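Data card: per-record layout.
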Amino acid sequence: MSAKQSDGTASESFSEAERKAMKDRAAELRTSHSGKSKKDPEQAVREAIAELPEPDRSLTERVHELILETVPELTTKLRYGMPTYLKDGKVVCFFQAAAKFGTRYSTLGFDEGANLDDGEMWPTSFAITELTDAARKRIQALLKQAAS
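The structure for this 148-residue chain is written out next.
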């Protein structure tokens, strides 16, 4: 479905997943600015993960636990309704489940707070389709570097 622009021409509108993510983010910001949140951020993250359909829920749970085990000093919060991990208040990484955003694969992304700089160009987002032993080891190495 497309929306009309002010000049009467059709434009692409946001998908249902994008609208939901924006609503989630607006609610998160209202709660954080008002100071009314009674919910522990980690509890909020776990509840959001529990609402995901399978197989995203299992993958997200496993990645969440891996992140917390690997870099326990990171704190968690929800951003766009998905788990986000911070160090000293700066976002280091985040996880996006495939079903949440209608994408082909889930993604582990790293933000500007991550210490992954390597020359003029480096990856900041990684698709995860399965959490194999090899994937776990690679994620752990990235997390340790990112949080260093």
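Known properties of this structure: The chain has five helices and seven strands. The first strand starts at residue 2 and ends at 4.

See the next section for split statistics.
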